[in-house]
Amino acid sequence: MNNLMTVLAASALILYLSSFRFGYMAYIGALFHLGLNAALWISTGYPPFIGGYGSMVFFSFLLALKSFITIPVKLKKYMVLAAIVMLAASFLMPHKTVKIEAVLASIWLGVHVPLFFLGYLSLTTAFIASFLKDNEKFEEREMGFALFFCFAGLLTGAIWAEVSWGKFWGWDSKEAWALSTWLFVASYFHFTGRNEKRLALFAAFISMVMTYLVISFILPGMHSYIR
Amino acid sequence: MKDKSRNLAGYGLFGLALTIEVAVLFFGGSPQPFYTTPFKALYFALTVLFALIAIVLCVRREMLAGFIHFFIAIFLIFYGVNEALFVWEELPAKNINSVSKDLIKGPIRVLAHEHGDSERLKNQDSLTMLYGGKLTYSSLNHPARFEKDVKLLVTGDGETVLVTQSVNLDELTVMSLLIAALLGLFAFARRSR
Question: Please, which of A42, A83, A115, A220 could form a disulfide with A153 given CB 3.0 to 4.6 Å?
């Protein structure tokens, strides 16, 4: 199964790269990428958004999908590039199959985690858009989605925490950083100046990357299930 | 003037986010610092500040910004009350021995634990009860004394956990949410004038 997944990932990467020359290749690449997600799910027995490797494969797939829809044309190739970087980076993560914690066998896993991924997806899109000119309205719309989805993620996470850990909030390192990411996104909507807005967007993006990829590795916490 | 107040509120949120991140990096996500008196005073001041800013923003028809501040104020009240009720979690284990020994009935919930225990408890082959009874505790945030039914259990893995009867939204939390909702209604009423 591991060999099959490596072939699927490599094929998706090559097809995404060739899409810079032949645009339609990105769609075929996304099919291989979908296959990779499915293979990962079947081989591990849990959804692909758990653990470092799985979540990066899943998130890069979302980035590629997003490039196909509601994106200004000049932004599409950068979204595909982000998907390529993310998928390539996933090779750096250990992807062994491990027994997952009993606490993750909950309906809330399928609600809380995807909501955050949608929020992160919008935040990443806004971040990329901020480098291109005349995209302020699009950027603001994406930040609005990020505000909503991260809020919904925090809310559902709090409910799940109450069910599993006995309290809504515990200042766990990851949940505190997720809250601060949301606060940065919220500050974006308060600022009126362009420079302040960009500052808030950059801070939110860096905070998101830290929350998603770094915090679990450098700080112990209740969210450190599979690294 | 309107832009100034919005920018100020933005910097407030930005600063709060940075403070949380630095605090978590510094304390490693431990809730211990949040039980100290200076923090409680700061916490109370922050809650009031956010509620006031929310009202001001709504009155100035900055509805999204106002809503965000209301959410934070509600969150702070909600969390504060929740922590005030469960502050006994931080009591050392020896204090638990001094309470009466009435066995408890009904659903239980893990409060002092490693992560995932409530789920793990369900999957345990054996559970030995060390102690079951009532724990009386007083909160530093509220003068009233509270009483909770508790159990001390040893799991098949040899881990000791403290569990208590399931408590959902209790009166104080509901009351604080109502107050926050009333504040929100007040702000919206002012806006519609």
Answer: A115
List CB contacts (< 8 A) between B29 and chain A: 171-174, 176, 219-221
Which range (A8-17, A67-76, A140-149) has the least confidence?
A67-76
Chain A and chain B share a number of CB contacts under 8 A equal to: 124
Distance of CA A221 to the CA centre of its chain: 20
Question: Which H or E run includes B136?
Answer: strand B127-138
- Global pTM reads 0.71
Quick check: A219 and B25 CB within 8 A?
yes
Cα A10–Cα A114–Cα B23 angle in degrees, nearest 5: 105
CB B127 within 8 A of CB B155: yes
ipTM confidence score: 0.84
pLDDT digits (tens, 9 = 90+) for A5-59: 888 888 888 988 888 888 788 888 889 889 988 988 888 777 887 777 888 899 9
The terminus-to-terminus CA distance of chain A in angstroms comes to 20
Residue A216 identity (one-letter amino acid): S
